Amino acid sequence: MTSTAWAGTGALCRLAFATERRWILGTFVVFLGTYVATAAQIRQIAPTVGDRVGLQGTIAQTPGFRVLLGPFEHTAEIGGATLWRVGVFMLAVAGMLAAACVVRQTRRAEEQGQAELVGATAVGRLAPLAAGLVTAAALTVAAALGVAGGLVLGAGSGATDAAAAGAQVVVVGLATAGLAAVAAQLAQAARSALGMTAGVLLAAYAVRGAADVRHSDAVQWLTPFGWAAQVDPFGEDRWYPLGVAALATASLVALAVVLRGRRDVGAGLIAPGPGRPDGPRLGAPIPLTLRLERRAGVVWLVGLAAFGVFVGSLVPTVVRLGSAEGGLAEALRRLGGAGALTDVFVSAMASIGALVVTSWGVAVVTRHHADEAGGRLEQLLAAAVSRRAVLLAPAVVAVAGVLPALAVTGLAIGLSGGDLGDALAASVVQAPAVWVVIAIAVLGQALGGRWTAMAWGGVVVATAVGQIGAAVGLPEWAQQASPFTHVPGVPADPFTLAPELVLSAVAALLLVASVLVVHRRDVPR
Amino acid sequence: MTDLVIDVEGLVKHYGSTHALDGLDLRVEAGTIAGFLGPNGAGKSTTIRVLLGLHRATAGRARLFGRDPFADAVDLHRRLAYVPGDVTLWPRLTGGEIVDLLLGMRGVRSAPRREEMLQRFELDPTRRASTYSKGNRQKVALVAAFAADTDLLVLDEPTSGLDPLMEAQFQRCTQEAADRGTTVLLSSHILAEVQELCDTVTIVRAGRTVLAGRLDELRSVTRSRLVATIASGAEGLGEVEGVHDLEVDGDRVTCTIDDAVTAEVVAAVARLRPTALTVEPPSLEELFLRQYGSDVLDQGA
């Protein structure tokens, strides 16, 4: 490999930072906020060491929680509990953000043609990869600083423990960035490269979870999550796993460099196979939406079912908890209202499942904007299809998909430990609230331009207000802003029809308004 | 009265303070191929977006088959096929799927020339759109446009990214469509393509029509160019009526001549015993550049 292959890395890094800046800043803010908010939540749920030891001995021991969150080891400080509550999950998030950064700068740039433009200048073949890795490293450090800052500010943790928690992020972030660098050489499409990385990371998460359930430390060394666990913040505060991660990342990057040398710009080592030569049933907006959303929909459904099984498996533990713990039982009640602890738990979990369903629905609806920005919408509208049909096709698919998706969640909870009828009802009553948020997203698409941001704004408000609002003691009027607050908390609370009807009517009105406004503007806007 | 498929008069479109169209006129008669010329940003694509009902005109008249392109968009679109200059596709669908998708959305029930067009444009329908080059993406839209009969083809720089062989194939397909009675609006930068195909041309600049008419008529109001090689020089040629812009460079003589006196001028040149002689009608390029050249001069003054 000649040194000219890296030429222009500096210039390309400056360009990469210009596009990645908002991701890097956003990552810092989100990580900081998550840790501050989680620390506040822990202070509410388990303020004393006794409470936390209680958590450690009960709910944290269940297989479901050990798979999802890892072991709860350090109860002495709020920070240790905070890290247990969100730490492993946020490591995976940081890894995926770093991977996305690498893929954007390498494979995506090749896909969209910028790489060719840049490659024709005095910029070496490996410079885009270097720029992607440098920006991904910067993003990882931003996430690490967010974690450390959040622990210091939110949980009052000491500098060494906070830095060790940040180091965990660096371990997983760098390793995943290296993984993405390899995947970007293998796959021909950016989406596939990211999917490949996500698949490996998810497998690593599952291996780590299984190892945590079986208490097998040797297996932990197989995954970056295990290396991160060796750092052991709030315990030993070890630093050598950073070296392990650096070594692994360097090996992966070396592999990526070799692979890059063996392929052309735009080509992948794994080329996608041929597909169907025709599409006789695609000539209408709804079949087209179904075709485009098919694969993603199955992934979401499997995820919802897994979530339901996890929740259901926790129900027996919650029953045992009901008679004992003061702090945790109180906090769970506050999350969901009055009633028997199990009912409150099922209801609260069903509303979290409903938020996942909402995110799926909004992702489907925002396809309209993606098609508009990409120029595809123009071709559809130049055919004999009305704006209303093109706007409403994803909306119809999303709205219609809500009930089956909620039913799958409820069934999974009920069949794996909860009461089947109760779990199903708890999940399905959320539908009108989900419809409202989806309809807000549709209105955003109909208005176009910067209004499209309304789509995810609705999800963020519903999540922040509905899920965290009660825990952090948000005033009553602010909690009312989320449609999920108005849904009856079945089975803990009795079912009432009125709010369901009102929410459905609001959703319907928003959809009607969307159809009216989409006919008033230029497309593309 | 002639049957106007496209009838645009005094079309105005403002985007905030930007005036994309400033009184543009465009008429296309049924069964003709109309060239639509102008530099980047002249308003060609904006006009097409108004004609497709995608954008709403600020003022002026736009009629497609005598109807309102915005209000009657869906009905009108059953009668047309559109090929944009920069075709973007659904990356995970195959070329064949997208061809059928576009045909289906137009309301086409059967596409008799689908297989023929796939072959003529050498497009592999099993490849995913994410693996297509720019030229191949254009071909997907072209195959869908030519695969079934349609009353109107709206082509907005349709051949960008095509190689010369495919460009020639495109010209043949367009001519065949016109022979079947299809009206064609062809917005293009490639003057040779327009000169080859089009019956009429409309040249626009800065949102306004600056020249429009039948190509042969436009040529006849402009002088032809005569180039001759005459060893004895151009003695006396300057006095012949209808000869302009006479230039002599050694034995090479060039001038422009009025069409009405072509025979007399050629006879006068013949008496000087030239060793070579060509008389050419003005090319579209000359028309085009003359239009812009004079405007540039006007602006400079």
What's this entry about, in short?
By secondary structure, chain A is mostly helical.
What's the layout of helices and strands?
The complex is a heterodimer of chains A (525) and B (301).
Chain A: H1 9-45, H2 49-57, H3 63-69, H4 78-112, H5 114-119, H6 127-155, H7 159-186, H8 190-214, H9 217-220, H10 224-231, H11 240-261, H12 285-323, H13 327-336, H14 341-365, H15 367-374, H16 376-382, H17 387-415, H18 420-428, H19 431-447, H20 454-468, H21 476-479, H22 497-518
Chain B: E1 4-15, E2 18-29, E3 33-37, H1 44-51, E4 59-64, H2 73-77, E5 80-83, H3 95-105, H4 114-120, H5 134-146, E6 152-156, H6 164-179, E7 183-187, H7 191-197, E8 200-205, E9 208-214, H8 215-220, E10 224-229, E11 243-249, E12 252-257, H9 262-271, E13 276-280, H10 284-300
Parallel strand pairs in B: 3-7, 3-8, 5-6, 6-7
Antiparallel strand pairs in B: 1-2, 1-4, 8-9, 10-12, 10-13, 11-12
Helix pairs in contact in B: 3-5
Please, could you describe this protein's structure?
The complex is a heterodimer of chains A (525) and B (301). Chain A has 525 residues and is an all-alpha fold. Chain A contains 22 helices and no strands. Chain B is an alpha/beta fold and 301 residues long. Helices cover 33% and strands 29% of the residues of chain B. Chain B is built from 10 helices and 13 strands. Chain B has a 6-stranded mixed β-sheet with strand order 5-6-7-3-8-9, sandwiched between helices. Chain B has a 4-stranded antiparallel β-sheet with strand order 11-12-10-13, covered by helices on one side. In chain B, α3 packs across α5. The radius of gyration of chain B is 23 Å and the shape is globular. The relative contact order of chain B is 0.13.
